[in-house]
Amino acid sequence: MVKGKFAQRRDGRIAALQYLYAWSLNNPNNLAEDLRVFFEGLEGSRDYYAFGEELIHGCLENLEKVDERIKSLAQNWDFARIAKIDLAILRLAVFELLFRKDIPPIVSINEAIDLSKEFSNSDAKRFINGILDKLKGELSRPAREASQE
Questions:
Q1: How many CA atoms lie within 13 A of 66 on its CB side?
Q2: pLDDT in tens, 34-56
């Protein structure tokens, strides 16, 4: 399974999305064991998905902050009624925008929109883009550059 860095990151994001979606439906008692079983079921080695695993841990460790930000940005939307797949995409992207300064915001947003096109319905991309665009406007860093902090 030899792929370029960008394809590997995409695969990592897809794995993270799939895990976060499954996690939202059935929160495991033992995260480490659940992750072990999850990664064993994937095509590549667990090391191949290291970026995705970083995103999973980051999202779950910062879930309260991420969800609060989504709630504040999704005005006129009942948080509990956001489709679980769309929420997983938003959690992933909001985590990246808030906590992964090594990833340019525009990359996180474009990846989220691509994930919504692949895994959600046709209306999801507008909803997700709207939320993430609002957040991008609140950030104090350039949209097209990674931060060196």
A1: 23
A2: 999 999 999 999 999 999 999 99
Among 4-8, 64-68, 98-102, 127-131, whose mean pLDDT is lowest? Answer: 4-8
Give the position of tokens 């950030």.
139
pLDDT digits (tens, 9 = 90+) for 3-26: 687 889 999 999 999 999 999 999
Q: Give yes or no for a contact between 14 and 115, defined as CB atoms under 8 angstroms apart.
A: yes
Sign of the alpha-carbon torsion through 67, 80, 112, 26: positive
The residue to which tokens 């990833």 are assigned: 103
Contact 5/13 with Cβ under 8 angstroms?
Answer: no
Backbone angles phi and psi of 119, in degrees to 5 = -115, -10
Helix crossing, 84-99 with 5-25: angle to 10°?
130
Measured in degrees and rounded to the nearest 5, phi and psi for residue 78 equal -75, 120
Q: Does domain 5-138 have CATH number 1.10.940.10?
A: yes
DSSP secondary structure of 60-80: HHTHHHHHHHHHHHSTTS-GG
The C-alpha atoms of residue 125 and residue 141 are separated, in whole angstroms, by: 24
**What are the residue boundaries of the structural domains of the chain, listed by start?**
5-138
